[in-house]
Amino acid sequence: MNTSIPPSGLPIAAVERDTGLAKDTLRVWERRYGFPSPARDSNGERVYSADQVDKLRLIRRLIDQGLRPAKLIGLEPAALSELLGGLGTAHPAADPARSAQFETILKFVRLHLHEDLRRSLQQLLMKLGLQRFVGEVLAPLNLLVGDAWLRGELEVPEEHLYTEQVQNLLRAAISSQAAASEGRPRVLLTTFPDEQHALGLLMAEAMMVPEGACCISLGTQTPLDDIRNAARAGRFDIVAVSFSAAFPARLALDGLRSLREGLPGETSLWAGGAGLQGIARKLPDIRIFDSIDELPDALRIWREAHPAPAQE
Amino acid sequence: MNTSIPPSGLPIAAVERDTGLAKDTLRVWERRYGFPSPARDSNGERVYSADQVDKLRLIRRLIDQGLRPAKLIGLEPAALSELLGGLGTAHPAADPARSAQFETILKFVRLHLHEDLRRSLQQLLMKLGLQRFVGEVLAPLNLLVGDAWLRGELEVPEEHLYTEQVQNLLRAAISSQAAASEGRPRVLLTTFPDEQHALGLLMAEAMMVPEGACCISLGTQTPLDDIRNAARAGRFDIVAVSFSAAFPARLALDGLRSLREGLPGETSLWAGGAGLQGIARKLPDIRIFDSIDELPDALRIWREAHPAPAQE
DNA sequence: TCAACATTTTGTCCAGGACAAAATATGAAC
DNA sequence: GTTCATATTTTGTCCTGGACAAAATGTTGA
Question: What is the largest CA-CA distance in chain A?
Answer without folding.
Answer: 80
